[in-house]
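#onboarding

Welcome to the new folks! Below is a worked example of what a typical request in this channel looks like: someone posts a single protein sequence, and someone else replies with the predicted structure as tokens. Don't worry about understanding the tokens yet, we'll cover that in week two.

Example request:
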Amino acid sequence: MKVLIVDDEPLARSRLRDLLSDIGHIDVLGEASNGLEALRLTQTLQPDVVLLDIRMPVMTGIEAARHMTELPHPPAVIFTTAYGDHALEAFDANAVDYLLKPIRMARLEQALQKSQALSRNGADTARPGAPDSEERTHICAHHRGNLILVPVADILFFQADNKYIVVRHSGGEVLIDESLKSLEEEFSHRFTRIHRNALVANPHIKTLEKASDGHHYIHLQGVGEGLAVSRRQLSVVRKVVAAIGGQG
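Example response:
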């Protein structure tokens, strides 16, 4: 069984490695100290199981686990944590098991056996989970078989395009298969709906201008073209622009 260890504490990673060594028949492929690093290593190393801490910097284990379900061959996830208040979120993220620190060998071995049994029986570890209860720090997209993670802080706008959503960010754009409504609800404090087909990032708003055709357009930092603001959303957009000190 191939295992990836993920924890922001070196001592915790070392203890897990020792426990796995004592259990035997385990190949530890590597270690990661946060969720983002774990995702990158999971894509590269393709472990069977990820032992995943929850409270970590950069990206939490809960978010990382949800992104892992988008991989072509998602690993089984076993959460390892010192806190018992994330159990529901963990199983919403399709975890195989949830181990509280200090982790005992018998419980770790039991969890590994469970993940092996699920894999042997062909269980789908990539079932869609329940709606996320925590806001993501990254948006997950697919491109040529690879998983691309875009930091939410780098996103300029979301725009509906047929069945997909265009995510324009500081490094380009990607397509995702999500609804604009769900994105609006999740990131309501950071993005504003300007039209039935678009959300813009408040921190990147530069100006709100009325064009010669009588329509209003939002201009964002780093975006050449203006984005149309519907009459229905105009009053809301004006308040947001005024609050951030933009021109409108």
